[in-house]
Design goal:
The protein has about 475 residues and is mainly α. Helix content is about 65%, strand content about 0%. It contains 21 helices and 2 strands. A two-stranded antiparallel ribbon has the order 1-2. The longest helix has 29 residues. The radius of gyration is 22 Å and the shape is globular.
């Protein structure tokens, strides 16, 4: 890997992030929270100094005229370390408000990865900090690097390797000729949906500040609320609005782009992954409605509302709640756990294994079962009209194997540290799937503050690995990856 290319790209990302760190200052001025200005000012200034230092220390950066020939390994490196450094920068403002270093990193990681797990035990913080917390989710939901590619002209062509390193998946669904245009199109859809949700929430009685923060958190699949009990006690109209946008947070933005540009909702239903995503949600939501009606004595209206709100929240990996579902019956909790494992669509703001990978796994298993009876038959596995190459099938199997391997190790480690199996399993699933809440004391109205130091460290790692989908982190363990040259 070429050190000058890495330093040049990395420093540009830091400069961009330093500008973003200054945005909360506007909120501080609006709400007259002068004590909240300094944390963001000093962090943003420090980031600029770090970028300048990198450019001065690494010789040859000034001679870099173009990075259009950037390699895949270099793209992986830039993305991985940009996210790690982004988390560190995002955590610094939390330190100024009495939050410990490990908790600040945990909260920042949860925000940047759009996970939604929190260590906050009270909510007596300035609006500025809550805005920053919500805004980090919005940045991470679509992707830090995707925004950099959309804004900075230096990445007009070179951004392709970084784009797919940040949002890897079984296929590279490119829908515009240039990767810069692709990134910009994604952000237009993302920002447009965010603005629409703000307007709808505000018009239905939510305060302007809450509408902004909750819109940033829901369309990103983040789930960090400005309230300790999330959406508990909210009106049904508010809950259904948020349900709608959480659903689209878990839907492929590539697919949404095609739908909006052609003004044809039927495009969604032609996509096999979307149909499966919708079917899983409908099945879980309907069964959960019955369970709440018969087992928890909810009336019909509230059974349907709370069932679909919380099922959508977990399958889209957002993590909001409308009630404390840890108090629901066993059947209801199993249905919610199923939604947690399902995950969202590829190229969405949501996390998890992704529906398309589940589809591929089931089709691979089905094909192998048929081959037992017909060993000479030749089969072609498809997703919709797309024939999936063998290397993609192999990568999918590898991904799922590593995913569940990390999940098992994390669950066992957390369970031993906390001496609680429920926390171990649901905490690991929540962190690696970027979901947020688990069950027990880390439920939707609980928090992670009392967890062991090492538990928080494991979950920080899982949140980052889950958001970047393993591949960039697995590459870090290859010794050839660490060979640098000028």
């Amino acid at each position: 890997m070429r050190l000058t290319y890495l330093a040049y790209s990395f420093s540009l990302t830091i400069i961009y992030f330093s500008v973003i760190l200054l945005l909360p200052i506007i909120v501080a001025l609006v709400y007259h929270e002068t004590n909240a200005i300094f944390p963001f000012l000093i962090t943003g200034t420090s980031a600029l100094m770090i970028a300048a230092t990198i450019r001065k220390v690494i010789g040859g950066i000034s001679e870099v005229k173009s990075i259009n020939d950037i390699k895949k390994s270099e793209g992986l490196c830039i993305v991985t370390f940009s996210w790690i450094f982004g988390v560190i920068l995002a955590s610094v403002p939390f330190l100024f408000f009495g939050i410990s270093p490990i908790d600040a990193i945990f909260e920042a990681t949860s925000g940047i990865t759009a996970t939604g797990a929190t260590i906050l035990t009270h909510y007596d913080y300035p609006n500025t900090l809550f805005f920053w917390r919500a805004f980090t989710q919005w940045l991470g939901g679509m992707g830090i690097i995707v925004l950099v590619i959309a804004i900075l002209p230096q990445f007009a062509i070179a951004g392709r390797q970084m784009f797919f390193a940040e949002a890897p998946g079984p296929t590279e669904d490119k829908f515009t000729p240039r990767i810069k245009n692709t990134a910009a199109a994604l952000w237009k859809i993302y920002a447009g949906l965010t603005l629409l949700e703000i307007i709808l929430l505000k018009s239905n009685g939510m305060s302007g500040f809450s509408a902004v923060c909750h819109s940033l958190a829901s369309i990103s699949g983040g789930g960090l609320s400005t309230m300790s009990d999330s959406f508990v006690g909210s009106t049904n109209s508010i809950l259904w609005i948020v349900t709608f946008f959480m659903f689209f947070a878990g839907t492929s933005f590539n697919l949404q782009y095609k739908m909006w540009t052609k003004f044809n909702p039927l495009i969604l239903f032609k996509n096999e992954e979307f149909r499966t995503y919708l079917k899983i949600l409908l099945v879980v939501g309907i069964l959960l409605s019955f369970s709440l009606f018969f087992n928890m004595n909810y009336d019909l209206k509230n059974s349907i509302t709370h069932a679909f709100f919380n099922a959508t929240s977990l399958i889209s990996t957002t993590g909001f709640c409308s009630v404390d579902y840890t108090k629901w019956d066993y059947t209801s909790k199993i249905l919610l756990f199923t939604a947690m494992l399902a995950g969202s669509c590829a190229s969405s703001a949501g996390g998890g294994i992704k529906i398309v990978r589940w589809l591929l796994i089931f089709k691979i298993v089905k094909t192998e079962m048929i081959k037992i009876l017909h060993p000479k038959a030749v089969f072609n596995i498809k997703i919709g009209n797309y024939s999936v190459p063998k290397e993609i099938l192999y990568q999918t199997l590898m991904f799922v194997a590593f995913y569940f391997g990390i999940l098992a190790l994390s669950a066992i480690s957390i369970a031993l540290l906390e001496q609680n199996t429920t926390i171990g399993i649901t905490g690991a699933v929540s962190a690696l799937g970027n979901i947020g809440p688990g069950f027990g004391i880390i439920g939707p109205v609980g928090n992670f503050e009392s967890m062991h130091f090492l538990t928080k460290a494991i979950m920080i790692f899982d949140m980052l690995v889950g958001r970047l989908e393993l591949i960039p982190f697995l590459v870090l363990f290859q010794k050839d990856f660490w060979v640098f040259k000028k």
